[in-house]
């Protein structure tokens, strides 16, 4: 349903419907997409925090390396289904983002 475009398939166009029906369909679509995004975000957060906790327990240290390693593992796991290149890019991206956030948060607390 997403949106009316010139490439939309046959059937009733969204713009041709009454305003109330347009709003109802729009809110339903928004709710479906929001729920899907929330599940993905929750999964990423659970994998990251669980991995970071395990690494921190294993190393017995609380420093920036735990977050970077957890970010790399999380990004690699999330991109693994798309192939090794995607896993490597996911690993590097999540690790870099984790390092940046960790550096920012540690700077604020000092």
What would your notes on this structure say?
The protein is an all-alpha fold and 110 residues long. It has three helices and no strands. The chain is elongated, with a radius of gyration of 21 Å. The chain starts with 18 loop residues before the first helix and ends with a helix.
Spell out the key features of this protein:
single chain, 110 residues, mainly alpha, 3 helices
* Approximate strand percentage: under 5%
Whole-angstrom Rg: 21 Å
Major sheet = none
- C-alpha geometry: elongated
- Specify the helix fraction band: over 70%
| First and last CA, distance | 50 Å
Mean pLDDT across the residues is 87
- Count of individual beta strands: 0
Supply the number of helical segments. Answer: 3
Secondary-structure topology with pairs:
Layout lengths: L18 H41 L4 H16 L4 H26 L1
Task: Give a brief rundown of this model.
With 110 residues, the protein is mainly α. The protein contains 3 helices and no strands.
């Amino acid at each position: 349903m997403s949106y009316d475009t010139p490439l939309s398939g046959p059937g009733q166009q969204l713009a041709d419907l009454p305003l109330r029906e347009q709003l109802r369909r729009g809110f339903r679509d928004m709710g479906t997409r929001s729920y899907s995004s929330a599940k993905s975000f929750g999964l990423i957060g659970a994998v990251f925090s669980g991995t970071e906790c395990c690494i921190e327990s294993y190393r017995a240290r609380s420093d920036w390396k735990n977050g970077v390693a957890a970010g790399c593992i999380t990004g690699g796991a999330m991109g693994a289904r798309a192939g090794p290149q995607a896993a490597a890019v996911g690993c590097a991206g999540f690790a870099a983002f984790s390092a940046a956030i960790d550096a920012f948060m540690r700077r604020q607390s000092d």
